[in-house]
Design brief:
The chain is built from five helices and no strands. It is an all-alpha fold and 84 residues long. The N and C termini lie far apart (34 Å). Residues 2-78 form the TfoX C-terminal domain.
């Protein structure tokens, strides 16, 4: 089982938030996906922002969040905007 903190972009703060919504391993994050994890985080922690979503996707893709392809960023931003 992969520890969340061993994934790219996942620091203590995001790890605690993920654990608070029931995601305790990298495999669980991969299974649920960045959008669903973000949605659950947003419901519990309303102050999470688009950067959190990028961070989750970067962790899943094993790249730094600022290196996500523009197309992926646009899709994630659109998803985040739809939640408002």
């Amino acid at each position: 089982m992969t520890e969340l903190s061993s994934m790219k972009n996942i620091g203590k703060e995001i790890e605690k938030k993920l654990q608070a919504i029931g995601i305790r391993s990298g495999e669980e994050l991969l299974q649920i996906g960045s959008k669903e994890a973000f949605l659950q985080m947003k419901m519990r922690f309303p102050n999470v922002c688009l950067v959190h979503l990028y961070t989750l996707q970067g962790a899943i893709d094993d790249i730094e969040y600022h290196q996500l392809p523009d197309e992926v960023k646009r899709d994630l931003k659109h998803f985040s905007d739809e939640l408002k």
